[in-house]
Amino acid sequence: MRPSSLPYLLFFHGHAHGTELPQSATPLAYSIGFVISTGLLHLCGIVFGQLVRAPAGRVLIQATGGVIATAGVWILVW
């Protein structure tokens, strides 16, 4: 992908999220929710990246993956 195409990708990606805006939601609250959730996802990635360095952290990450996988199966079944 060429760097010059990035603004177009960002525009259309933002447009896709904007069209998902529910009729009952206010655009400001919806945008704030996106910003907060994106920040929390980044924070989780940083924390997991730091945990990988410790042997106990690796076990914790594997356990977390197991919990997430179990929750996914539960959602699919129910």
Explain this structure to me?
With 78 residues, the protein is mostly helical. Helix content is 79%, strand content 0%. The protein has 3 helices and no strands. The chain has helices spanning 6-19, 27-51, 55-77.
User: Structural class per helix/strand content?
Assistant: mainly alpha
Helix and strand succession? Answer: HHH
Total of DSSP H or I helical runs spanning 4+ residues: 3
How many β-strand stretches? 0
Query: Helical proportion?
Result: over 70%
Radius of gyration of CA atoms, rounded to a whole number: 18 Å
User: How confident is the prediction overall: mean pLDDT?
Assistant: 88
Biggest β-sheet strands, sense, barrel: none
Shape: extended
Low-confidence stretches: none
Q: For the record, give the distance between the C-alpha atoms at the N and C termini, rounded to a whole number.
A: 40 Å
Percent of residues in β-strands: under 5%
How are the SSEs ordered, and which strands pair?
Blueprint: H1 6-19, H2 27-51, H3 55-77
Condensed summary:
The protein has 78 residues and is mostly helical. It is built from three helices and no strands.
